[in-house]
Amino acid sequence: MPLMISNRFAKWNLIAISVLLSVVYFGIETAGQSPDLFRFFGRLHPIIVHFPIAVIVCALIFVVLNKMRWVSIPDNVVNITLVLGSWSGVKAILAGLWLAQTGGYPAETLFLHKVMGFGATSLCAILIYLRTSDHRILSKPVLGRLCWALMTIWLVVGGDLGGRMTHGKGFITQYAPGFVVAVLGQPNPMKERFDLSTPGTTTVFDGIISPIFVEKCSSCHGGERQEGKLGLHTMEAISTHEGDEPLIVAGRPEESLLIKRISLPEGHEDHMPPLFNAKPLSFSDAELIKWWVEEGASFETLIADANLPADIYTILQAYGLGEIRTGVFALDIPAPDSTLIANLRAKGVLIDILAEGENLLSVTCKGVASCFTAELDSLAQQVTWLDLRGSDVTDVALTKLASFPHLTRLNLSNTGITGDSLAAISSLAFLEYLNLYGTKVSDASIQHITPIKTLTAIYLWQTAVTPEGVALLKAALPEAEIDTGVLEN
Ligand code: HEC
Fold first, then answer.
1. In the structure, which protein residues have their CB atom closer than 6 angstroms to any atom of ligand 1?
2. pTM of the predicted model as reported, rounded to 2 decimal places
3. 338-483: CATH superfamily
4. DSSP one-letter string for 382-407
5. Domain residue spans in the chain?
6. What average pLDDT does this structure show over 296-300?
């Protein structure tokens, strides 16, 4: 006698599936441990899961074709297909839970994926019950359609979440034609991994290190699960960890347990992350974590302020770090007026754009009588390098430089200035280079520049400044190189 899916059968099927799913839901913890054989079965989840999906989609196609009256497939066939779908769904869920136990999956995505799987499987059993019921309300087609709609959404979303967990974001769009990418959006996995777009306001920890920990470590060292009593998901968890050995010794990667554990040979049983159950750390991930510890394991250092050795810079560039702009280059300076530039050039002033695409200017007044014209004043925002070597600039004219806020290099060598007016420029916030070679500056007047903490190079050769004056200056500006033309011994 052929199998007929009666309402009675459907009811028992629904009860059996519900009981089983509840037992499985509460009985198998995704964070728990199971024997290897189960884990092996778990690894087959990505293959097994396609069977219930295909079967359910088949049933849906049957229903739609029947509705359109293109074919006539007996209701019983559709119901049998759905019974197959519900039971193979349970099997896929079991495998999924054992796979989850092997670790390394982001907790939130995993949870949603799990809900979709359980949901689609129970819906399948509910549908069979509704379809075989002759109850006035239950057999209404609207209920059935609702179930189908929900099921379709859950299968699509659940499948996508599953794909993301196994292959990472962007797996589908990577080779897709342009129009598909336009619809789905193209995440660039390299460029999205770290937050490098605003190095001036993002810390090394938030932008680079934390994303590595979240992606590669926090499935076992996160909010839910803290293997070895270690959490790597927040600053607090990292800085308050207490173990037998110090987790991080700032500046000393070789003494930090964190670095020791990730630097062990892959086959070593203490190697982190564990060989089989987690996403491995790439070479560059490990290098970045080491660099962070080496540089003091700070949670505050901004990417723009961090010391970036060439190899680290290369790694970060590959992840989309642009040129790091500091000092005047980080400012938004308006474009200079080109007629002013042309007029000054006509007078013999040499003017150049400091760098391609920048609005900053380098100006040289060598041999030009009275360089300080109203035209130059109008370029005060843009002039960054000013070379007044050998010009007729006077102490009085020098006071005007206070209104050139972006000067980084100022050359006053071989001019008649005495330095008495240097106090006027002590407010320049970016000045790095000051050349006073061959001027009349003295021990007293040179002290006017001590407030300019940005100075890194000062030239005092052939001036009246004595070694005592230099010593005073050096004490006030320890970072600056002071060149007096005398070799230090
Ligand atoms: C699949 C799970 C898993 C992942 C992923 C994982 N770990 Fe672990 N980790 C463990 C377990 C289990 C322990 C405790 C047993 C041990 O010390 O080996 C541990 C211990 C540690 C310890 C020692 C803590 C202490 O004080 O004893 C460090 C350090 C560590 N892990 C770092 C990491 C880092 C860094 C990552 C990411 C790159 C990572 N782990 C990823 C499972 C994991």
1. 103-104, 216-217, 219-221, 227-228, 230, 232, 243, 247, 257-258, 261-262, 270, 272-274, 277-278, 281
2. 0.50
3. Ribonuclease Inhibitor (3.80.10.10)
4. TEEEEE-TTS---HHHHGGGGG-TT-
5. 7-184, 190-324, 338-483
6. 95
